[in-house]
Amino acid sequence: MKILVAVKRVIDYAVKIRVKPDKTGVETNNVKMSMNPFCEIALEEALRIREAGKASEVVVVSMGGPQCVETLRTGLAMGADSAIHVSTDMPLYPLAVAKLLRALATKEQPQILLLGKQAIDDDANQTGQMVAGLLQWPQATFASKVVLGDQRNVTVEREVDGGLETLRLQLPAVITTDLRLNEPRYATLPNIMKAKKKPISKITPEELKVEIQPDFKILEVVEPPKRKGGVMVGSVDELVDKLQNEAHVI
Amino acid sequence: MKSVWRNSRNWRRLGGVVNRGETIEQSPASKASALGSSRTIKDGGSWVPWTESKALSRALSLLDARSVVPLSDRGHVSSSLQHRRGYGSAPGDSQVCRDKRFAELKDADIVHFRQILGDKGVTVDSDDLEWANTDWMHKYHGHSQLLLRPQTTQQVSEILQYCHAGRLAVTPQGGNTGLVGGSVPVFDEVILNLGGMNKILSFDEASGTLVCEAGCILESLDNYLKSRGHIMPLDLGAKGSCQIGGNVSTNAGGLRLLRYGSLHGNVLGLEVVLADGTILDLLGTLRKDNTGYDLKQIFIGAEGTLGVVTKVSILTPPKLASVNVAFLACEDYVSCQKTFTEAKQQLGEILSAFEFLDRHSLELVLKHHDGTRDPLPDSKESFYLVVETTGSNESHDKEKLEEFLQSAMEKELIKDGAVAQDITQADSFWKVREGIAEATIKAGAVYKYDLSLPLKDLYNLVEDMRERLSDSATVIGYGHMGDGNLHLNIIAPKYDDKLVAQIEPYVYEQTAAVKGSVSAEHGLGFMKPKAIYYSKPPAAVQVMKGFKDLMDPHGILNPYKVLPSLRESSAISQGL
Q1: What PANTHER family does its record include (chain A) (predicted)?
Q2: Which residues share a beta bridge with B213?
């Protein structure tokens, strides 16, 4: 069984981001980029399924410019068998990514499509759901536990607002991962060396017969208003006065 | 599970720290003659006059007798207030007495300080003083009754002027993270804490020169610089608490000395207040200034005994985007050494840190330090390396690093390794190395030795001590391999003088035998003044004392520390 894992290259989680002075976006020049943490968790889960003997192949895919190859190398260094780079310079938003993934899934025929629940740069949380809809595959999002069954199905425990929900899905299925699913492994030297020989195939949206149109235009990006400091009040009367006349809550 | 010693009241008494009016046990021989050359030390379990101590004479035989200059004994009178320099300190039992030249604190003094600092800057409450009186390792406890927190250099000057005139002893204090008891009072010295002087004064982006007050916390400075494209040239585990004034006064080393050099090179200027209150403005911001003697150098590493640092001007390197951290496993120490040679050659200018730790250290930190994760759970090697590269080009650096790792693996210098793929992973590798110090404290009573040794001999001492102490203690070794700096830690269930006798002066003797340093970066503080002779000739110590007398004629700045007392030195010199 083949598992396809989609990973995204984002600004490193630990970096303090800055908005560009021209408000067109976040500063990415000279900033450390890494694999999206949720995508890492997705890849780790795929590797564990393969190590348990339930899958034969883990393919990692990323989309965008040439730097994606670095992220794919990380994926291969963690242990994926091969990688696919969907090469495009167009800005990619969730619907376009979902369409590309549909085309790839149709081509590669994986039984499980694993993604992170959202990317830490846009926090969209849409791609997994959209591609499931496009493929007409069952989906289990925010997975905190994934157990493969014998009858070509998978049982997934999901973290929802009310608690934990358990779903059983028939394969092929789309699963998006949440934080508590697993702790991703480090890339060890033997795997890093092996990764150099693993294939990274390149494909374009045109070859996949997917047309990418920008769905929307970003007007401006600004920092959220700075939080005002607290004020020490001198007496209860002052507090009541402020609550009434400044905060307007009583 | 070994108990946590930090808050146990009992073991504080074990160390021989006494309160006023109590005398501690003296050996019969020394009771007879409290002073002078018949002072006794323990040699092989029994008390002997120090002149007959085989251990001491072996150590001192390393010194050329002709170079010792006899000194006149100032004859300090011992009072009933005595302080044993316990917990693994200088060779032999030295009994430090409160120097009677120093005045005792009076109410009038406190009133005067309140006038200078206002009520907020003066603390006399014993609970608040508890923290300032105790060092980070909870080994040393002072008895100060007064903590002062100035806000300006002028206030520091007025305080010292008053103390100098009134012969009040002063202990300058920063973050209180020192490991040799140099930052806390020994008796009732007034604590001068500079934590309130924490303003950043200026930063020149073009040259990278940062000027700030001595009380700035190292991590805060780093955060300030990060958003401006620079970093501090030093980095140590205590960065969240240590202050730059203290770092300068102890010539702190740390993890990045390999790449950015020592503070002697990075500090461009200092503002220092001398013992008599004189404000010495050496706060230059020039990279090159050869006008006269470079006075600031004498204060860097003086541990607060020659002057109080109030402002620092420091050169900061640019923050480079591409940082890679690798955690490697080696079979034996020789492989570690060879890996270091390879790393220097193949990584060249991008190598920014090279640390090592042995298997025992790894197990200790995984057990006792929260949130650490074994980077190589499948490998069971004996030595681990943390190698960091910092450069400006991600792909160039990654390529160089991978080439180095491949070559090291092919030559079988490293058995296994992991490379951090993002900043969070890199931090988790560093946490393993940086967390060892804290883990040792949680593991039991720890004796720390910070030694500079030739690279090929670095680990021999650890194996030596392990054999020597066998079951009585756990011996771990780790440190800044790139700088030839070993942190030898010996952890026992409790502090025990018998154990100390087996460790010291053996460790110092072995270090002196290879011409190493008995204190690579921690300084001498209260713990090691007498050990200075293992690494410096008496003539040098004499010159140092000359400086001390010149800069601080009343001896009020951080007394009982760094340099051996005149009484101790004369005793040693007379013996030869």
Answers
A1: ELECTRON TRANSFER FLAVOPROTEIN BETA-SUBUNIT, ELECTRON TRANSFER FLAVOPROTEIN SUBUNIT BETA
A2: B311
